[in-house]
């Protein structure tokens, strides 16, 4: 019986081959015929192909993604969920590369962050520009979730701050904004210019910004106008009196080849939500501690889209076993691959100082790439899911394994090597009977270090849909639910401790006591 991760890996590899085949086929079609219409492409959708629904890591995106998934399931489609994928760059790349088929997006983000437009054009124009990229923009859900700047109500009232422009009179305020907002053209750079704001914001994960604001660690942060936590924590949204922020209408952003039956199912949601109702749904997840699936199921029933009662579980711990197995498979796959590449490579280059320095330099350079950036860069090459996550973890495992191996091989006592040579041992026999046994303690140290690094880094793989113990951490951050964060973090820490103990036990089994003492000294 295959595990979910292995199934996902196979789907990722087969999906990549399928996409490559479709690309070649489409090139041939371009030579002989004009571009196929979206309807013709939709007609070619395989009946057994699941529709992959994605979302960003924020609460509202996760909830809307679950609503999309349940509506498509009620229409008779098989749905695969890849929710909580991180920021816009990851979800858009996943959609553009064919790894996702639909995810909730906003017209302002689509115009500024994806299409790089200076303003937000009408919806039909956005759709036309998206179709040039093989994508479509469906009918709006009905609400405008615009950006805003949020403060604690009592502080804003005591300082007399009502508008964003009033912040300019208080340059000493501590402001922290989400990393994406700080960099976006429609985010902090333009906002600071429009209102002549003197503050320099710090970057902060949006999921923990409200907690920091509530505890007075910061004075202001960026917000989404429909978030349930605004009422929950009695925050106030500052008035955008210059109308800087554009309209952010929520829309299903889909693959242009999506079947028309699926498009019609999603169009049932058009106009079904306004700002107040969306904020209420978000609040149900955050304050009433209901699962995304429970809230989504009740909503589509209230809308009359389905009359069936869906069986959904609200328990947070249901997927503990699955998350743990996925995490172990990610870590062990990457570690095994790094050993298969790193150890032979070290044996090949350790005798040549120049080549070994180059190898160490290159692997060290790869280690300096921020993990979330490396995962995002993998998407155009390998899509989303298990495959890019394993490759990224493999890259991070190389340096500790190769550095420890080269150091261990070079520090074997030269006198012992000369004795072995004098005994008539060939170079291969010297390596097998003298050098490798003496180098084993430090070789294992490098592998152990790589394993522990992998266990921690693998939690970030959830941002590209690879699952593991990072999944509850990402969900917990979006919900401001620190119990759920600990649900992922504590098992990951225990795994690292277990890995340390297992390696210690293994060393005691395979390394003689006198060599373990030599290693310690």
From TrEMBL:
Pfam families for the chain: BPD_transp_1, OpuAC
Annotated ABC transmembrane type-1 domain residues: 324-503
Transmembrane segments: 330-350, 371-395, 441-464, 484-506
Major localization listed first in the record, in broad terms: membrane
Subcellular location: Cell membrane
CDD domains reported for this sequence: TM_PBP2 (cd06261)
Keyword annotations from UniProtKB, A to Z: Membrane, Transmembrane, Transmembrane helix, Transport
Membrane topology qualifier: Multi-pass membrane protein
PROSITE patterns the UniProt entry points to: ABC_TM1, TAT
InterPro entries referenced in this protein's UniProt entry, alphabetically: ABC_Gly_betaine_transp_sub-bd, ABC_transp_perm/SBD, MetI-like, MetI-like_sf, TAT_signal
Family according to the record: Belongs to the binding-protein-dependent transport system permease family. In the C-terminal section; belongs to the OsmX family.
Protein's name according to its UniProt entry: Glycine betaine ABC transporter substrate-binding protein
Organism per entry: Cobetia marina (Deleya marina)
């Amino acid at each position: 019986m295959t595990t979910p991760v292995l199934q996902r890996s196979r789907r990722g590899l087969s999906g990549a081959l399928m996409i490559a085949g479709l690309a070649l086929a489409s090139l041939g079609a371009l030579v002989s015929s004009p571009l196929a219409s979206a309807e013709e492409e939709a007609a070619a959708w395989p009946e057994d192909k699941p529709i992959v629904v994605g979302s960003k890591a924020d609460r509202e995106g996760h909830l809307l993604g679950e609503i999309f998934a349940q509506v498509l399931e009620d229409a008779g489609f098989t749905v695969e969920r890849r929710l909580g994928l991180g920021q816009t760059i990851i979800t858009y790349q996943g959609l553009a590369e064919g790894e996702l088929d639909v995810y909730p997006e906003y017209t302002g983000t689509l115009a500024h962050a994806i299409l790089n437009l200076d303003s937000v054009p009408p919806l039909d124009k956005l759709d036309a520009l998206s179709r040039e990229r093989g994508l479509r923009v469906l009918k709006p859900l009905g609400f405008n979730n615009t950006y805003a700047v949020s403060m604690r109500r009592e502080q804003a009232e005591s300082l007399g701050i009502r508008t964003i422009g009033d912040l300019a009179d208080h340059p000493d305020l501590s402001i922290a904004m989400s990393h994406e907002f700080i960099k976006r053209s429609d985010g902090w750079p333009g906002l600071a210019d429009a209102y002549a704001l003197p503050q320099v914001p710090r970057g902060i994960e949006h999921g923990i910004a409200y907690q920091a604001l509530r505890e007075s660690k910061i004075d202001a942060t960026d917000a989404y106008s429909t978030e349930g936590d605004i009422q929950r924590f009695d925050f106030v949204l500052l008035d955008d009196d210059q109308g800087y922020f554009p309209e952010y209408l929520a829309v299903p952003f889909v693959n242009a080849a999506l079947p028309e039956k699926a498009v019609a199912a999603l169009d049932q949601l058009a106009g079904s939500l306004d700002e107040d109702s969306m904020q209420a749904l978000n609040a149900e997840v955050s304050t009433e501690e209901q699962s995304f699936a429970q809230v989504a199921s009740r909503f589509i029933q209230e809308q009359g889209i389905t009359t069936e009662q869906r069986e959904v579980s609200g328990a947070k711990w249901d997927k503990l076993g699955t998350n743990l197995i996925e995490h172990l498979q990610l870590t062990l796959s990457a570690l095994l691959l790094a050993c298969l590449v790193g150890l032979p490579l070290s044996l090949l280059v350790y005798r040549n100082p120049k080549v070994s320095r180059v190898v160490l330099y290159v692997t060290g350079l790869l280690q300096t790439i921020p993990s979330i950036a490396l995962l995002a860069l993998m998407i155009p090459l390998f899509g989303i899911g298990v495959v890019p996550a394993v490759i990224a973890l493999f890259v991070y495992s190389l340096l500790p394994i190769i550095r420890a191996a080269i150091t261990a091989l070079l520090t074997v006592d030269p006198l012992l090597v000369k004795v072995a040579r004098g005994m008539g041992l060939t170079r291969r026999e010297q390596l097998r009977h003298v050098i490798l046994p003496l180098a084993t303690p430090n070789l294992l140290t490098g592998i152990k270090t790589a394993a522990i690094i992998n266990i921690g880094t693998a939690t970030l793989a959830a941002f590209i849909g690879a699952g593991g113990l990072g999944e509850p951490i990402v969900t917990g951050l979006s919900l401001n639910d620190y119990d759920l964060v600990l649900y992922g973090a504590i098992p990951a820490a225990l795994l690292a401790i277990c890995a340390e103990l297992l390696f210690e036990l293994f060393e005691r089994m395979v390394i003689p006591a006198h060599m373990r003492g030599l290693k310690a000294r």
